[in-house]
Amino acid sequence: MRTFTLTLLLAVVLATTAKSKGGSRSRLGYRECKDFKSGYKNITDKAMKWVKPKPLSAICGVDGECPEVEELANRHCGFGIRKIAAGKWVSTHLDESDGEQKYNRAFMRLFGYISGTGNDERANIPMTSPVIVMTNLDESYRQGDGSMHFYIPSQFQENTPNPTNEDVEIEEWEDVTVYYRSFGYKGLYVSPEVWEREFGYLARAIVDASLSSDWSRAITGTFTQPGVGEQRHEVMFVARGHYSYYYETTDFSWKDARGYKDCKKYPDTEKPKAVESLCGNYAQCPAVEDVETNGCGYGKRKIKAGSWVSTEIFASDGDDRYFTALERLANYIGGQNEDSQNIEMTVPVITKNYLDENFDETRSTMHFYLPPEFHENPPAPTDDLVEIEEWADTVVFYRTFGDDITNIDVEAFWEKEFTILGEVLAQAEEDFFPYVAITASFTRPGYGQQRHEAMFMQVDEEE
Which residues contact 440 (CB under 8 A, 6 or more apart)? Predict the structure, then answer.
C-alpha cells in the first residue's frame, strides 16, 4: 500500500458532473459509465492500465470470511451501493512517524492480534477480507491521519479476545451504506495515481447521480493479497442519507399517492411516490395535519411548528447555486456546527422563491427540517451563510408529481405546476399568497420513483 493525494481532485470533481451511462461488467458489482471505459482505453502507461477485478463471489466464503453485506438497488453507472452489516472490527491508527512504512507496520500490528501473539487469549483468528484503510481529509481534500481495520470473523464476534497492544483496539461498527468502485491490479502495490483516479471517478459518479456522501473520509478496501494472482481493490465513500426508493406502486392508488383527487382535465403522467412510504420509514419529516379542501387538483395540510436550518441561494453562484446551497446545509448536518454534531437527513428539501408583483424572482432560500430532538437547542452553525429558523404552524396548499425532472427544462416544468396550482386554488376560492412559490423535494431528482410538490401558503386572515 502507498499513500495517495486527493488535494484538488475532489474539489474539481464535486463541481463537475458527467452525464454518461454505459454497459456493465459482471465483476464490478455495477454498470460502468461509457466515458470511464473510454478513459481506460486511452491509457498507455502499463502501471495505470485498468485490470478486471476478482469477483466478490470468488473471495467471500472461498478465500475467507467477509462482513455481511447487501447490494442495494442502483440505476446509476460508475459505482455500486452496498449496505455493510454491523459488527466488530480490530483497528489501529496509521502512525505518521513511521513514514512510508506506516501501512506495513499497521498491518503487522493487526496481524499480530489475529495470529495470537497480540490478544489475551492467544487465540488464532482467521484472516478476513477486506483490509480497510480510512484516511481523513480536510476541507481542501488534503490527506490527514488514518486507520486500518480487519473484520472479526463471526465465530469471535460475541466473545472477542482483547488486544494486548495498546495501539490496537476493538471497534463496534453500526450498519453503514457505502458507494464503491472496484478494480484489479497487477503488481505488489497499487500506485497512488491509480487510487487517485478511482476516487475521482467514484466522486464524479456520485455527484452525477445527485447523491450525497461524507467527503471527509476516503476509504480503501483490499480483498486479495497484493501481487498474488487475481486481485480486487475498492474505493469507497460513506453514503450520507441514502434512502431505498424501491417500493410497490400498486400499493397506493393515484389519490393516495398524490394526497388528493385530481381534476379530470389533468391527465395522469407518472405516479408520485406516496408520502406514507417516505416519512417515518426512510426519513423523518416535519409533523403535518391534513386539512379538508374545497375542490380537486390540490391538497391542503398544516405543517406544525419546528426548527429548520436555512441558507440563501445566491444568483452569483450561477448554475451551481442550488447545489452550493444544498452543500452548505449538508455540511451543517454532517457535523460542521459548533457541537460537531451529526444530524440525520430529513425530507423534504424546501426551496422558497420570493416573487415581486410581476412574479419575477427576487431571492431564493433553501431549508432542511431539523429532527425534533434538536428543536429546543439546535447546534449553532459555524458557516455565516447558514442560520437556524423557527417556523410557526403554517397551512399550505400543494400539488404533487412524480415525473423525472432530470433531463427537462426544470424551470418551465415548475412554472407549469405552479400555474395549475394557482388555477385550481382560484376555482376552489381558496385564499393563498402567490408571491412565495415553494418547492418541496422528497426524493432525489432522477433516482427511482419520485415525489416533488409545488406549494403556496394560505393567507393568514388574522394578519
Answer: 348, 349, 350, 351, 398, 452, 453, 455
CA 185 to chain centre: 28
pLDDT in tens, 303-360: 999 999 999 999 999 988 998 999 999 999 989 999 999 898 899 999 999 999 999 9
Distance CA 302, CA 306 (A): 12
Ranges of beta strands (E only) in 33-189 are: 69-71, 80-84, 87-93, 131-137, 143-151, 168-173, 176-183
Euclidean distance between CA atoms 177 and 183, whole angstroms: 20
- Distance (Å, whole) CA 441 – CA 190: 41
Distances (CA, A) of 68 to 95, 158, 274, 307: 29, 15, 31, 38
Q: What are the start-end ranges of the E strands in 120-266?
A: 131-137, 143-151, 168-173, 176-183, 217-222, 233-238
Distance CA 94, CA 20 (A): 37
Q: Contact 326/311 with Cβ under 8 angstroms?
A: no
Tell me if the pTM is above 0.85.
no
Place of cell 472496484: 182
The domain 249-458 having CATH identifier 3.80.10.10: the answer here is no
Written out in words, the top-level CATH class of the domain with range 9-238 is alpha beta
Q: What is the dihedral of CA 292, 294, 299, 304, to 10 degrees?
A: -50
Nearest-CA neighbor of 455 among 394, 396, 391, 395? 396
Tell me the C-alpha distance between 386 and 110, whole Å: 43
What span, in angstroms and rounded, lies between the C-alpha atoms of 134 and 376? 35
Is the predicted pLDDT of residue 155 greater than 50, yes or no? yes
- Grid coordinates of 308: 429548520
Nearest CA-CA partner of 298 in 435, 421, 414, 394: 421
Residue whose C-alpha is closest to residue 367's, from 346, 382, 392, 384:
346
In this structure, are residues 51 and 183 in contact, taking their beta carbons and an 8 Å threshold? yes
- How far apart are alpha carbons 266 and 79 in whole angstroms? 38
Do residues 211 and 180 make contact, with C-beta atoms less than 8 angstroms apart? no
Which residue spans of the chain are classified as CATH 3.20.80.10? 9-238, 249-458
